[in-house]
Amino acid sequence: MAKAKKSKLKIVKAKKAKKPVAKKANGLPSPSKKPFGQAGLALDGVRILDFTHVQSGPTCTQLLAWFGADVIKIERPGIGDITRGQLVDVKGADSLYFTMLNHNKRSITIDSKHKKGKEILDRLIKECDVLVENFAPGALDRMGLTWEHIHKLNPRMIVASVKGFGPGPYEDCKVYENVAQCTGGSASTTGFRDGPPLVTGAQIGDSGTGLHLALGIVTALYQRSRTGRGQKVLCAMQDGVLNLARVKLRDQQRLKHGPLTEFSQYGEGIPFGDAVPRAGNDSGGGQPGRILKCKGAPQDPNAYIYFITQAPVWEPICDVIGEPTWKTDPEYATPKARLPKLNQIFSRIEQWTMTKTKFEAMEILNKYDIPCGPILSMKELAEDQSLRKTGTVVEVDHPKRGKYLSVGNPIKLSDSISKVKRSPLLGEHTDEILKDVLNYSAKEIADIKLSGAITAPEKKEKAA
Ligand SMILES: CC(C)(COP(=O)(O)OP(=O)(O)OC[C@H]1O[C@@H](n2cnc3c(N)ncnc32)[C@H](O)[C@@H]1OP(=O)(O)O)[C@@H](O)C(=O)NCCC(=O)NCCS
């Protein structure tokens, strides 16, 4: 018995050796022979039912669309995403608020509370991989689109939501950007110590949470390829902001063990309270930094540079600013010795930066690997040719507003190269989606139009 077993084993081994195992590693197909950038987009074949509005949700679905997903934006007939008509700059055209957040999507109008509208939505649910929404808490359920309903229709569906808060005392609250910045720890740690809390210009609550949600969605898609089933993905804006402000929660815990020595207030001899204070423009990391005036400030509101006194380049810093003795003077030579004197050190550095424009200073400092960055205005960013070349700033043409600038996909994939296409007009793709995605016949589409499920109220009256 034992002998026979052994010889069988040998035969099996011999057979196995002939298989081209390396090519099918991990169940993946053989590497594409097509040149990079020509093997289709990363999310080709993924279809998104996009029930998002305003900024947080649309940021997420725009990213997915840039990566190749077919994003079908559901909008209320006659009105659409509220941002189409907010901060309007060109009469009769969708606002930049809308156009800059809804590139590469298709738009269909559906009244989700209309009987026929619900039927169309159910058909869409069966045809899509992900439903993304950022309605006020409970709104999706009130439309009848509960998780149970969706999951029954399509067990593979991923349902992704942005809400202001996660489960807890505030879960039913509506939330906008600045509320999230305030409740997520950003505002209490932004601004100057002796001033009020401040919100930042970067939309970390809305766009930041949209980014978090996009990662949640692709992760759920990846897991679905193994499990075959969808799941719920939730990103609360408070959680997203807190995640981005995590270094401040780090500092909160450090406070128990003594003052935060990299904060200017330490050098100024001002005691710390029991919560992380606002630190002005002090660097958030262990390398002290400041915003310093350059030639032209303060008349030019952006003639400033961020200057970091990174420890490894302390010696070149001393040479550049004309204080070579600080390299060896024990009062300045070590990072620890410098911490109580940051105000004095930075005002000496500023004497030097004020003799240069921010771009001249940047050029000189970069030669010595001294970390720094000019304060760039939105005008300068809009005109920056290198950002145009990389597609981070793009010019888009729109039939109603003409050419406008937008931020392109900031995430660059070498095999999935994003092309920015203009945002859709309200309901522009309604017929196309009903016909090609949902297979409604011409007669059925005509009936749907008459039913009022996809038309604005005034058109409903005319149709009746
Ligand atoms: C952003 C927010 C404050 C806006 O509030 P809002 O303008 O009052 O909008 P809501 O989300 O409450 O939706 C309004 C209504 O439109 C309805 N609606 C939306 N699309 C519809 C459609 N296609 N057909 C019919 N009704 C539709 C909703 O069902 C809801 O009705 P209901 O309240 O009767 O259930 C809120 O949506 C919210 O808190 N969202 C979650 C957090 C978030 O994403 N905030 C950041 C936004 S950038």
Explain what the structure shows.
Helix 2 links the parallel strand 1 (47-51) and strand 2. The chain has helices at 2-18, 56-66, 96-99, 115-127, 139-142, 147-153, 177-183, 206-227, 237-244, 246-254, 264-267, 314-321, 335-338, 342-353, 358-367, 378-383, 385-390, 430-437, 442-451, 457-463; strands at residues 47-51, 70-75, 105-109, 130-133, 158-163, 232-236, 289-293, 304-308, 372-374, 393-398, 402-407. Helix 2 (56-66) crosses helix 8, helix 7 (177-183) crosses helix 9 and helix 8 crosses helix 9 (237-244). It has 20 helices and 11 strands. With 464 residues, the chain is an alpha/beta fold. Strands 3-2-1-4-5-6 form a 6-stranded parallel beta sheet, sandwiched between helices. The N and C termini lie far apart (86 Å). Coenzyme A is lined by residues 54-57, 74, 76, 110-113, 134-136, 139, 142-143, 162-164, 174-176, 206.
Alpha-carbon Rg, integer: 28 Å
* Structural class estimated from helices and strands: alpha/beta
Termini Cα gap: 86 Å
Number of strands: 11
Mean pLDDT: 93
Helix share of residues? 25-40%
Give a concise summary.
Helix content is 38%, strand content 12%. By secondary structure, it is an alpha/beta fold.
Topology at a glance:
Layout: H1 2-18, E1 47-51, H2 56-66, E2 70-75, H3 96-99, E3 105-109, H4 115-127, E4 130-133, H5 139-142, H6 147-153, E5 158-163, H7 177-183, H8 206-227, E6 232-236, H9 237-244, H10 246-254, H11 264-267, E7 289-293, E8 304-308, H12 314-321, H13 335-338, H14 342-353, H15 358-367, E9 372-374, H16 378-383, H17 385-390, E10 393-398, E11 402-407, H18 430-437, H19 442-451, H20 457-463
Parallel strand pairs: 1-2, 1-4, 2-3, 4-5, 5-6
Antiparallel strand pairs: 7-8, 8-9, 10-11
Helix pairs in contact: 2-8, 7-9, 8-9
Coenzyme A binds at residues 54-57, 74, 76, 110-113, 134-136, 139, 142-143, 162-164, 174-176, 206.
